Amino acid sequence: MLEVKSNGNLMIRSKKWVTIIKDEKKIFLSRPHSINGDSEVDSPKSIQRISSLFKNIKPGFDLTNFKLPPLFNLPKSHLQCYGETVYCMGTDMLSRCNQADSPVDRFISVVAWNISTLRPPIFGFAPYNPILGETHHVSRANLNVLLEQISHHPPVSALHATDEKQKIQLIRCQLCVPKFNGIAVVNEVRGKRQLKLLSRGETYEMNSPDLLIRILPTPGVDWDGDVRIRCPENGLEAELHYGHKSFLGLRGSHRSVKGKILETSTKRTLFEFNGNWDRYLPSRQISDNCYNEGQC
């Protein structure tokens, strides 16, 4: 931790957040999740503290109402974390979804944007649960993002975002149901996302993968499960599978994703892709059509 004095203020910098102290008032400015962040455990003390939380909890227990000690909280709300997946992008991949003339190219852009919204969670830390009626709003250029906690029991969050220039609308409503299975916490993400390209008359529906928090034997966090993206208007759909390392960490690929894009009516595969969602994800043309081999 480094202390720097600037303009009479005392600024304390760390790797995870910045604290500014002025006139005995503290302001916490939390940086967004980094795509290069590490989800693995950093210290043996972390796994010991986390294991102690579950010593009296039986496998299969629903952790929805489980109260996490403040020691494990990030200085931000779940709403901010959800919003960051939309407005914190190095490249504006959302606006690209509406720029291609071909329905297949637009669908590929939607799949690429969907994969890019994933973030590597930090093991041993969780955001604060939003209170009922809490909101989070961010405007950046043509993009407006609004989130609200619309239910407390169960905790349901809603998101509405618009890109006025590209005529894009994003609607999301989700509920997270965490359960303890004895060696890990499986956070099932329920709900749907709709991405609407208003000028094209297309609506893309998609779900989210589950969040797997491994405690034993190898601590870490991974996105896991199947995701389906479909657009009834252009007759295309995509099937994605997110994988993780095996129980002992000896098999499997960290942050892996594989899948395919196909025609809904004929089930004919157009493209296949296999790689890592936080790195390079190449795609390969399967069917005979006018689209060349590219990168998803």
Report on the structure:
With 296 residues, this protein is mainly beta. It has two domains: 1-31, no CATH class; 32-285, Porin, CATH 2.40.160.120. It has four helices and 19 strands. The strands form three sheets. Strands 5, 8, 9, 10, 11, 12, 13, 14, 15, 16, 17, 18 and 19 form a 13-stranded antiparallel sheet that branches. A four-stranded antiparallel sheet has the order 1-2-3-4, with no helix packed on it. It has a two-stranded parallel sheet with strand order 6-7. β11 and β12 (184-197) form a beta hairpin. The radius of gyration is 21 Å and the shape is globular. This is Oxysterol-binding protein. InterPro entries: OSBP_sf, Oxysterol-bd, Oxysterol-bd_CS.
Instruction: Kindly estimate the percentage of residues that lie in beta strands according to DSSP.
Output: 35-45%
First and last CA, distance: 39 Å
CATH architecture of the largest domain: Beta Barrel
- At CATH level 3, the topology of the largest domain is Porin
Individual helix count: 4
Let me know the average pLDDT: 82
- Unreliable runs: 1-23, 290-296
Organism: Gossypium tomentosum
Family: Belongs to the OSBP family.
Protein name: Oxysterol-binding protein
InterPro entries: OSBP_sf, Oxysterol-bd, Oxysterol-bd_CS
